[in-house]
């Protein structure tokens, strides 16, 4: 008998991770940048990375994008950007998940988890800052100097977010891997035999 690949437990974990991304994104403070939407320091990216490490590239990226979109849909400042947010956060979680995969095992290598987190965050930062620059300069006609000033402010906040996100997701994955029960759950959800 063939084992089911997509179980109720996996659906529950995808939903749980999306919920953690949403709640982590709510825990934030805003930094006004003068032009466009404000930038934020928040915990959501840590759970986007953790989703990628625990669920792998496809479902981890999906959880990261879904949780982030829910936040965008609850805030009038961000509703219009919800589809782009989904894509960018999906790619962050997916990049992390691709790197964190280790010979069919997911999230077992601390080194790969750390590198995956860093590359996932860099992917997101490049996409986010590129979108900010293009939209301010091309769509809204902000002069290049003004657009670069906003991008600079957002870059600092993004780097602070990145450091916290990588550190938190890395630390949480160490805890998960040290607990035989939690590690078994991750393997079970991903249909990995021990």
Can I get a quick summary?
With 194 residues, the chain is mainly α. 74% of the residues lie in helices and 6% in strands. The two termini are 19 Å apart.
Can you walk through the features of this model?
By secondary structure, the protein is mainly alpha-helical. The strands form two sheets. A two-stranded antiparallel sheet has the order 1-2. It has a two-stranded antiparallel ribbon with strand order 3-4. The radius of gyration is 17 Å and the shape is elongated. The mean pLDDT is 90.
Strand content: 5-15%
CA-based shape: elongated
Question: How far apart, in Å, are the first and last alpha carbons?
Answer: 19 Å
Number of strands: 4
Q: DSSP helix count?
A: 6
Please, what is the average pLDDT?
Answer: 90
Biggest beta-sheet profile? 2 strands, antiparallel
Helix content: over 70%
Provide the structure class: mainly alpha
How are the strands of the biggest sheet laid out side by side?
A: 1-2
SSE string: HEEHHEEHHH
Low-confidence stretches: none
Itemize the secondary structure elements and their pairings.
Elements: H1 8-26, E1 28-31, E2 39-42, H2 44-73, H3 82-100, E3 101-102, E4 105-106, H4 110-139, H5 144-178, H6 180-189
Helix pairs in contact: 1-2, 2-3, 2-4, 2-5, 3-4, 4-5
Please supply descriptive tags for the structure shown above.
single chain; 194 residues; mainly alpha; two-stranded antiparallel sheet; 6 helices; 4 strands; 6% strand
């Amino acid at each position: 008998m063939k084992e089911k690949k997509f179980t109720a437990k996996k659906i529950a974990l995808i939903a749980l991770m999306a919920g953690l991304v949403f709640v982590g994104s709510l825990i934030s403070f805003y930094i006004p940048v003068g032009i466009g939407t404000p930038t934020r320091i928040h915990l959501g990216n840590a759970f986007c990375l953790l989703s990628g490490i625990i669920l792998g590239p496809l479902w981890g990226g999906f959880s990261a994008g879904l949780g982030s979109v829910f936040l965008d849909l609850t805030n009038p400042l961000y509703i219009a950007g919800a589809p782009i947010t989904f894509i960018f956060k999906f790619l962050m979680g997916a990049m992390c998940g691709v790197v964190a995969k280790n010979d069919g095992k997911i999230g077992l290598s601390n080194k790969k988890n750390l590198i995956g987190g860093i590359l996932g965050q860099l992917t997101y930062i490049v996409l986010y800052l590129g979108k900010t620059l293009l939209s301010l300069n091309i769509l809204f006609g902000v002069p290049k100097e003004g657009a670069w000033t906003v991008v600079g402010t957002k870059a600092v906040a993004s780097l602070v977010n990145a450091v916290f996100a990588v550190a938190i997701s890395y630390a949480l994955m160490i805890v998960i891997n040290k607990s035989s029960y939690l590690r078994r759950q991750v393997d079970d959800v991903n249909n990995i035999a021990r």
